[in-house]
Each structure stands twice: as structure tokens, then as C-alpha cells.
Amino acid sequence: MKDFEFVVGIAAGVLTSISMLPQLIKVIREQDVSTISPVMICVLICGVGLWCWYGAMKGELPIMLSNGFSVILNATLLFCYFRFKRNG
Predict the structure, then answer these.
(1) What are the structural domains of the chain?
(2) Which of the residues 5, 15, 27, 77 has an alpha carbon 20 to 30 A from that of 34?
(3) What is the pLDDT of residues 12-35, one digit of tens each?
(4) What GO cellular component term, any one, is given (predicted)?
(5) What one-character-per-residue DSSP string does the chain give?
(6) How many Cβ atoms are within 10 Å of 52's Cβ, its own excluded?
(7) pTM of the full predicted structure?
(8) pLDDT tens per residue, the chain (88 residues)?
């Protein structure tokens, strides 16, 4: 049963970590962030950052890695928001 739990945990981590990847790709291709909420991205970064911290406290590398990737991905999306934001 432990192996199954591990696989489920890894699958959940991978799927949630890559969930914003299609949005980031779209933003980079179109350079349009008019439908992106920077507040939502900031809240998400805080949430996955706390998951990283939790993973570190528990010594759980899969939690730290999957959420660390999410922090990087969402921080990149936030950077793109400010880079491509239309003034006006």
C-alpha cells in the first residue's frame, strides 16, 4: 500500500506543478496578460511556497521539489505579467 500512496503523491505533485505551464506558454507566445490576475498568482506563489516549507519541515523531498517547481513557474508567469502588461 505504501508504494501506491507514493505513486499517487508523485502523480498529484507532478500534475499540480505543471498545471500553470499551458498558461505560461500561452502568455509567452501571445505576450498578452490581459486575462491574468496578478493577485491570484501572488496568492498561489505564497501557497506553494508554504508547501515547500512544510515539505522541508517534514523532510519530504517530493513535496519540496514539486512545489519548488511551482514557485518558479508561477514567479515566471508573474514576471511575464509585469513585462507584457499594457500601460493604458
Answers:
(1) 2-84 (1.20.1280.290)
(2) 15
(3) 888 998 999 999 999 999 999 999
(4) membrane
(5) -HHHHHHHHHHHHHHHHHTTHHHHHHHHHH---TT--HHHHHHHHHHHHHHHHHHHHHT-HHHHHHHHHHHHHHHHHHHHHHHH----
(6) 19
(7) 0.88
(8) 778 888 888 888 889 989 999 999 999 999 999 999 999 999 999 999 999 999 999 998 889 999 999 999 999 999 999 999 986 4
